[in-house]
Batch of 2 targets.
Target 1
Amino acid sequence: MAAEETHHVAKTFMDHLPVLQVVIPLFAAPIIVFIGKRSLAWPIAFAASAAAFVISCILLIQVLDGGFISYHVGGWAPPLGIEYRIDAANALVLALISGIGTVVLPYAYESVKAEIPKKNHTLFYACFMLCFTGLLGMVATGDAFNVFVFLEISSLSTYVLVAQGANHNKRALTAAYDYLIMGTIGATFFIIGLAMLYMATGTLNMADLADRIADEGTNRTIRAAFAFIVVGMGLKVAIYPLHHWLPNAYTFAPSAVSVFLAATATKAAIYVLLRFMFSVFNPSFVFEEWTLYIVFIPFSLLAMFAASFVAVFQTNIKRMLAYSSIAQIGYMLLGIAMLNATGLSATLVHLVNHGVTKAALFMGVGAMMLYSGSAFFNNLNGLGRKMPLTGAAMVASGLSLIGVPGTAGFISKWVLVQAAFENGWWIIAIAIMLSSLLAVIYVWRMFEVLYLTAPDPQSTAKEAPLAMLVPMWVLAIACIWFGFDTELTLGSARVAADGLLAGSAGMAH
């Protein structure tokens, strides 16, 4: 949608899609609680997430020409009113979040029954909808303070969701508590940064912020605000070494929660970081450029190697995948630090590809836990043979995690290597390839346990229920499909990268 078409007053149903995407799941949460029937909680949650996914797909199609949609909440024009602004960058992330949410819910139907007491099912689906709403809202909004509000909605509900794993392992409670402490610190840093921006510019609308910073230049307050925002979102992203909340949260949360968080939570935070860095603070902002080179590149490389190295020695497969996520976040941040269109494209396409890949892997582990009772390697011996369809899905997504040609993971890593070559960073390109070899080691350990060790003769394991298999295979097929057909993922990422690199010009009304 062209920029000049965005200023009319929304009248038709289609014009309200940007806000409906957030409002529908937001209202689904209290409706689930108000009705209070466990039998209706899942259908309401699934209907709301499916509606959000359809809307996000429509919005993505509308902005693939490089334009944007500006929706004024209550008809109040920004910067006085709250704006929802959809362009290729956030439309792609919205499609990922809503798509994963829609696929996870059929899987959750079975896994939640096995892992969470019946009395908590209504609470679970209500909190899931709130978390889903928060992630969609922080990505869709064009108002900086609204980002904080939705960030808190998603975070508070996530703490409850992680704690639901306490029925299976009491360490879920300490994991949720650690996440709460670290998340609160991150949110505090973020809101302090926003307060400084407001003090310096007198506005919180992102487009208006971009214009005022570009017109008036930077001062010490704006530079301090930038630092606070980067650290605050860095905690939410789990930038190495601010990642200590993540392994336990992913390991001890219920299976469906691990799947959803691994695929969406850090991805939404990376988008917010991208939006502030490239749309609010223009890349020509020298302080930002030095931050990328001095902070992001070293910590990204450290994450790629250190987290992968730690993953190799894990005895719990969920914890192994959690450390793998920290390493993959390193790849995404490295793409940002390259400050070129190819690097940003790599970040955005890896954001989607890794979300799909890691969701499929966590689904496979969760299905096997139904019979093994835990995610420790020594309890999963030979389960790939006893659960052939589940094992095959994990093999497909495991190959994507490594970055084998013909998988989604290969595409994003290849584009990242291209970006390094564009900058003449040969050493970085070699580092990307070497760190992928570490992924081969820990993924091979998973294959070895599933297929090359003898299953427990007393094991009663059988193939996962259909409600878990279908979502798992949808994602596993996507891991292969996006490795060959890159038009949607890489094409959208390139349009989004061009828009982000346009800086404040891309946000101008």
Target 2
Amino acid sequence: MSLDTLYTAETPEGIALSLRPAGVMARSLAYLVDAGIRLVIFFFAALIARPMGGVGSAFLMILYFALEWFYPVVFELTKSGATPGKRMMDLHVVMDSGLPITPAASITRNLLRAADFLPMGYAAGMLSMLTRRDFKRLGDLAAGTLVVYHQTVQLHGVPPPAPAVPPTRQLSLKEQAAIVSWTGRSARLTPARLDELAVIAASVTRPDPGVNVRGEHDATRRLQGVAQWLLGHRQGGGSP
């Protein structure tokens, strides 16, 4: 039974995003999958380390620490923003704004699992999730993060059609999110404000001789083209 409710976030650019936070059941199942993966890794490592004596014991202690505290951080900072267990449940971790999780936030939310565990069996974390509409545990509250269903993230605002143009350099996840959010807000901004923001991002666009986007709002059209390229509309413009 789903207990999830719709959550509306707003990016720093003022774009509204609809997200559906994951409830206790989905997150518990994801945790069990990840716990099983960590257990299998530790089991095989123990078989290898057994003949090593004291060195093997030290190795296992270090491995246990790494699996317990850094296993989720490493996976949350990947493109998927999710551990294998969360991916199986179609979940991922984002900031409250809907943007990709930051390293500091991931470390914070995972270090505070110790507080969520108190007094035992993740009782504090469960109580926190069951009493909140966004199903945040204590670590999420401290880090400003959300665990949401991946396929339910929706951008409010339809990006205007534009010829798809690749960026001039590789973009970080934050830069990609900012550009897509900006173009989704196009209908809510004046042309002058759109141009002003587009000029700031001029380093990721370039005039394309094959695309007629020159004119008064050249920077805006080029950046809208980059947004279409990031959205996967890379065949002939604004439609997939």
